[in-house]
Amino acid sequence: MKTIYHQANTRGHANHGWLNSYHTFSFAGYSHPERIHFGALRVLNDDTVAGGMGFGKHPHDNMEIVSIPIEGDLEHQDSTGRHAIIKQGDVQIMSAGSGIAHSEKNANSHLPVKFLQIWVFPKEQNIAPRYDQKSFPVNQRINQITTVVAPDNEQAVWINQDAWFSLANLTKGFATEYTIQRPQNGVYAFVIKGSVTINGIQLAERDGLGISETENLQIAATNDTELLLIDVPMHLN
Questions:
Q1: Cβ-proximal residues to 60 (8 Å cutoff; 6+ apart), any chain
Q2: Which of 49, 155, 68 is nearest to 109 (CA)?
Q3: Contact 70, 116 (CB under 8 A)
């Protein structure tokens, strides 16, 4: 088993006033030679956007971009004509494919929005751009691991990669097991809130842990915990 531990306070940080962002991996002005990506996982940003502010329209191509709101409401618009609001419990994915332009902004003028922005390298290049979002209510994932992003599960949002994202809301003292989807994959675990032990390693809020070359994760919540698991190929084509 291989592990890589990223303590919350070691992440890159940029505060632009309207945007307060923490970067698990190198991004924009934050560059760390040992923190470029974890397999196909390229970006994991922990963003807080001030009321009424947001990211103006900008382009992407050949990247799978997942947004997971933690608090507040996020307004999405893109060049396909899509206009949607996502909120806590929702998961949004945009397959940029051959090219798409989008904007993301705080839908509320008086409250911040907090969300995770996650980029995954795609399996196939230059596919037609696509968008999807679905709701996974928090009260329906108590003490269970819920798949929210997958290439092979109609209940989840589809991704152009052999990658699976799961969310779990675990009560203190609850223990469970997660089986990695493919032998070639690893899992990056990110603690949204609370604290948890994974394969004997203690993680606190906003800590991250990459695990590969194993089949299972043994998970035990040491406090009430919200946990994100990102199961991705460790080798890029």
A1: 94, 96, 99, 100, 101, 102
A2: 49
A3: yes
- pLDDT tens digits in sequence order for the chain, 237 residues long: 999 999 999 999 999 999 999 999 999 999 999 999 999 999 999 999 999 999 988 999 999 999 999 999 999 998 888 889 999 999 999 999 999 999 999 999 999 999 999 999 999 999 999 999 999 999 999 999 999 999 999 999 999 999 999 999 999 999 999 999 999 999 999 999 999 999 999 999 999 999 999 999 999 999 999 999 999 999 987
CATH for the stretch 2-233: 2.60.120.10
Structure tokens at 104: 């993301």
Q: Is 22 exposed, middle or buried (0-12, 13-18, 19+ CB in 10 A)?
A: buried
Q: Looking at the DSSP assignment, which residues form a beta bridge with residue 49?
A: 19, 113
How far apart, in whole angstroms, are the C-alpha atoms of residue 44 and residue 23? 6
Q: Can you name the residues that pair with 41 across neighbouring β-strands?
A: 38, 120
Copy the structure tokens of residue 65: 């971009």
pTM of the model: 0.97
Sorted by where each begins, the domain ranges of the chain are 2-233
CB atoms inside a 10 Å sphere around CB 19: 16
Which residues contact residue 173 at a Cβ distance below 8 angstroms, ignoring those fewer than 6 apart?
220, 221
> What's the half-sphere exposure (Cβ side, CA atoms, 13 Å) at 14?
16
Buried b (16+ CB within 10 A) or exposed e, 222-236: eeebbbbbbbbbbee
